[in-house]
Amino acid sequence: MLLMTTDFLAPYFSASSFDLDDKQVADLKDSVSFILLEQSEENEDLLVATINLFIAAARYQPAFFIAVFATKEFMGVQPGNAGDGKLPTIEVSFGPVESKSSSLVDAVLCYVVNSDSHINKKPFVLLNVLNFLKALWQRAAQYINILARLKSSKKFWKQLSKIISLTSLDSFTDSLTEMEALNLAYKYQYQSSIMEIMAYDMFLQNKLS
């Protein structure tokens, strides 16, 4: 609820931070980890709500987002310039994607890599995952190592490109059912989010080069 309020009042609260102690952060991390890693197949509404929490936190509460999303051993914060009114630049380093240890980043990556099975069965979940990725790329400078972790998967860009090519002129017929029309609408929303991600990444690469 707190982050939903922040999402609506971003112009007023985007530079503020939540004063949570270590135990509260740990409890929240355990809860979202359980939802994303264990409950994703059983409770779609809860999963989508958790992803929306990540979206709001990634956009407006980067320090809070890192505290919840990253494991402590991989977390490193680089303080920004004091008094400049900007949130600190936060970088997180993760091990190889092939690591056997589960992480929330790996769980999100799995949704992209296995998106073929979600496109028609769980289109709303996939759309929210893509919107979450877009939120990370919108603040790319603060999540540069998280993005590197995602992009280190050979299947990441390949699968996003595959999703873009889903819709063709053959999709337009006069006999679309209501469900087929809804799935087609989702596919266009997928394409929009992915093209925005690609545009943000191109801008990031130009800035880094």
How would you describe this structure in keywords?
209 residues, mainly alpha, two-stranded antiparallel ribbon
Q: What topology, given as strand order, has the largest sheet?
A: 1-2
How would you spell out the order of helices and strands? Answer: HHHHHEEHHHHH
Number of helices: 10
* Rg estimate, integer Å: 18 Å
Q: Specify the helix fraction band.
A: 55-70%
Query: How does the overall form come out from the CA principal axes?
Result: globular
Q: Which blocks of ≥5 consecutive residues have pLDDT under 50?
A: 8-16, 72-102
Portion in strands = under 5%
Mean pLDDT over all positions: 75
- Report the span from N to C terminus: 40 Å
Q: Which structural class fits the helix and strand makeup?
A: mainly alpha
- What is the makeup of the main sheet? 2 strands, antiparallel
Number of strands: 2
In the residues, how many domains can be counted?
1
Describe this structure in words.
The chain is mostly helical. It has one domain (2-208). The chain contains ten helices and two strands, in the order H-H-H-H-H-E-E-H-H-H-H-H. It has a two-stranded antiparallel ribbon. The longest helix has 31 residues, at 178-208. Residues 8-16 and 72-102 have low confidence and may be disordered.
Give the helix/strand layout.
Blueprint: H1 2-8, H2 10-13, H3 22-38, H4 44-60, H5 62-69, E1 75-78, E2 89-92, H6 104-113, H7 123-138, H8 144-151, H9 154-164, H10 178-208
Antiparallel strand pairs: 1-2
Helix pairs in contact: 1-4, 3-5, 4-5, 4-7, 7-10, 9-10
